[in-house]
Structures are given as C-alpha cells and as structure tokens.
Amino acid sequence: MVDKSKDETFKAADRPREDSTVRSSEKHDFYETTRENIIKIVDEVAKVQPQYSQSVSNLQLDYIQAIKNTIHTAFSAQKQMAETNQGTWSTTPISVPFTEQLAKQSNEITNNTVRAVGINNQLTINALDAARENLKIYNKTIDAVTEFNTNAAKAWNSFFTTQQQQFFRH
Q: Where are the domains of the chain?
C-alpha cells in the first residue's frame, strides 16, 4: 500500500472533500473582510474631506483678498499719481458730464455683474443639489439591483439543486 500523504502524485481529486459549510464560511469571511477593508479606505478618505474642503475654502478666500488688494492698490496708485502730477499726466481736466456718464455706466455694469453672479450661484447650487439627489437615486438603484441579483441567484441555485436531485434519483 502506498502512503498517499508522502506521494506527490496524490491529486486533489483523490483527497477527501471539505465540508461545504467550511468553504461557505471561508467565502463569507473573504467577502466580509474585503467589504470591511474597502469601507475602511472610504472612511479614511471621508476623514480628511473636511480638511480638504476647508483648505480649498481658505485658498479661495485668500485669492479673493489678493484680488481686492490688487484692485485697491492699483486704483490708489492711479488716483495718487493723477492728483499729485496734474500737469504732467493730463493737460486738460476731465469734464464733469463725462465722469458722470462713466460712473453711471460703471454702476450699471456692476449691478448686471452682481445679478449674473447671483444667477450663476443659484444655478450651481441647484446643479449640486440635483447631483446629490441623483446619488440618492443611484444608491437606491444599486440596492434594488443587488436584491434582484441575489434573488435570481437563489432561484437559480434552488432550481439547479432540484434538477440535480432529480437527475441523481433516476
């Protein structure tokens, strides 16, 4: 008699089969471990998301402040140069009707720009809200598809098992 434990030709088919509950348990452990690891990664990303958002917000605020500072400095410098070097920079003073018209047009442009920014902001907020709603719908769809696939797999498995049992009875 050959000692099969030391014989390398002892094939997997000759080995006794494991209990199916053990294999099922191992599969369950594999899926649970993988699911938990992926969720752990997502949780780590979620932890830094507030910091990321705050950093982006801080950068935007710093950028806005830099733009305001640039505008303030540029106009202050121009105004100072125009006031201190009246004869050097312009030979004739600017007429009052021209400056009034320029101020009026500047105000209209500013008001139109403010309205456009407000409309753009509302459109952006609406688009983001719609995206959130779509994500909710997507999640519900994934749940429904998963439930359907699970039920289909159970039905197929039940049918297949019944067919196997009938086949082996004959």
A: 18-78
